[in-house]
Amino acid sequence: MNDKLTDKDLFEGFRDPKVVGYLKEEIDKEAAKLDKPLRLMEVCGGHTHTIMKYGLNQIMPKNITFIHGPGCPVCVMPKERIDHAYILSMQPDVILVTLGDMIKVPGSNGSLQDARSKGADVRFVYSPMDTLGIAADNPKKKIIFFAIGFETTTPMTAALIKQVENLKIKNIFFHINHITVPEPMRALLADPACQIDGFIGPSHVSVITGSKIYEPFPAEYGKPVVVAGFEPVDVMQSVLMLVKQVNEGRCAVETEYTRSVTREGNTTAQNMIDHYLRKRSHFRWRGIGDIPESALELRPEFEHLDAEKIYADILPTESIDDHKLCICGDILKGLAKPNDCKVFGTACKPSSPLGSCMVSSEGACSAYYKYGNLL
Asked: Which of 165, 264, 310, 316 has its CA 20 to 30 A from that of 39?
């Protein structure tokens, strides 16, 4: 095995035992040089599932620990926003359209699945563009696209807005819930209870934003960031890169996922997002709290499409707390593991979730339940 694996080596041999074995040996060698334990937060829920599915947490040296971060957009959606979706879906002239992960997320009135059982017209799509066909087939209905996701899915929403404007479609509206990655990372580092030594950065987000969005973390906080792909060897290589940075006294943004991520990112997508959307002054994250400028909203010139403003008189504005037994907040902050929760796997499981971390396919509790042999 070569001393240094190329991105091509990782892509072609992501399940090759020789590649995995090599990375395991190198991580062990570097970990032995550490003078203190290393706590690495994988920001994205996709990384959490890779770690659990392939048992990477079990093969790491004892002085390297994975901390699960708030990188699941469904998991961090607060109850009041879920309530907005529920209330809108129950309006007689509305068809609510959203992405599939939203179906079982519990709000204070129930989930969108519950709304459907009561007669609401809720439709789940793989692409926001499917909303155009739904609107064409239902010209007398108001079609509300409940938009969710990090920077990865935001360009698709912006592209839909562009189509609605260009085609002068009158029956499509938007409830924007897009959130951004750097701001919650900053919020976690500001919490003295949350001890993080480095970040494994999300690759799909970074394809859009570029790796430049992470540059303040080494510069201002002294925390290295490695942007990693989602295959097991991608995660292992990123761990190796982070440990080497610590041992060599460096602190920088590095990209393991060079096959898709550049520093600048997709500037066309960025410009389209900026044309239609802007930063919200505040947004509440489920289990974490209010994080300034961590989400997006429609720009004022497009407020005629904004379902939040159109239906403002029926949508609640007060915050709603989670179930008292749910510790999703601590899990999303990296302060607890899912199996630290008293109701994990008993009262709270995928078929009857109490908290959002069990609902989403990217949630940490879902990963622990699925790959912890609880199914």
From this structure: 264
